[in-house]
Design brief:
14 strands; alpha/beta; 9 helices; Rossmann fold; about 20% strand
Length: about 260
């Protein structure tokens, strides 16, 4: 089985699936290799790529807070952010005007931007001027906040207070904006991957995992073969057995051709 992060790994810097990566993944699927996505993206957005590539393996979404079967929508796992933390973090981001995505149930909320046509947003994505007001709809699955200032503020102001009650995934990629993902303390891509391995009867040592950020560290260490992208920060590179070309150089296709196909 191959576990793939999406942004910064399978998708290029334009958030698109290249022809080279698509061809390599399709070939692997045709040869009976199981592909599982392990991503910070919400389920409906990850599902679009899974459907395009005819991937039927459970999806690991929201950094491991959700594990869900794409065939029938059955949830194998769904964890929520601590309510007090979610409210304080989202309110702080609302007031600062930071770019933020808050996932609640089947909906993910974002702030309105110039040029956006709400009716043309991806499945599940909705506009909310103040996302803190949406928390009345139910518990948040994850809160994703972008920007170096936001990451530093969350680390300094919220981690000391809520560190034992949540997972703070601080990510500082090399060639894209820094971001932090707030989830339940047990939400972790590696845990989700273990669940999928058990679901399919595959040993973790028989998996290959690829990622580019700090959120992928434990997954890379758990897999039998962990491969970091060429656009990964040093900490992620050190945790991997191999370094692939960057996501703009079809690093996934390179790895699949070298180790799988």
């Amino acid at each position: 089985m191959i576990a793939l992060d999406l942004d910064g790994t399978l998708l290029n810097s334009s958030m698109r699936l290249s022809e080279g990566n698509e061809e390599a993944v399709r070939t692997a699927v045709e040869r009976g290799v199981q592909i599982v996505f392990a991503t910070a993206r919400w389920y409906a957005l990850a599902l679009r790529t899974a459907v395009r590539l005819d991937i039927q393996t459970p999806l690991i979404c929201c950094n491991g807070a959700i594990v869900k079967r794409p065939l029938d929508g059955t949830e194998l796992l769904h964890l929520h952010v601590d309510e007090a933390l979610a409210r304080e973090a989202v309110t702080m981001a609302d007031e600062a005007g930071w770019e933020m995505y808050t996932t609640i149930g089947d909906s993910t909320y974002m702030r309105m931007r110039a040029g956006i046509i709400p009716e043309k947003l991806p499945a599940g994505l909705k506009v909310a001027d103040r996302q803190s007001e949406r928390l009345e709809e139910g518990p948040a699955t994850s809160v994703l906040i972008y920007g170096e200032e936001a990451v530093d503020a969350v680390a300094e102001r919220l981690m000391p207070k809520y560190g034992a009650r949540a997972r703070f995934s601080l990510n500082r990629p090399l060639n894209s904006p820094h971001y932090v993902i707030l989830t339940h303390p047990e939400a972790e891509k590696s845990r989700g991957l273990r669940m999928v391995c058990e679901e399919l009867g595959i040993a973790p040592q028989d998996t290959l995992a690829m990622g580019d950020s700090e959120s992928d560290l434990e997954m890379l260490r758990m897999a039998g073969l962990g491969i970091a992208m060429g656009n990964s920060p040093d900490e992620v590179r050190k945790a991997a057995l191999h370094i692939a070309p960057t996501n703009d150089q079809d690093g996934v296709a390179w790895a699949l051709r070298r180790f799988v196909l």
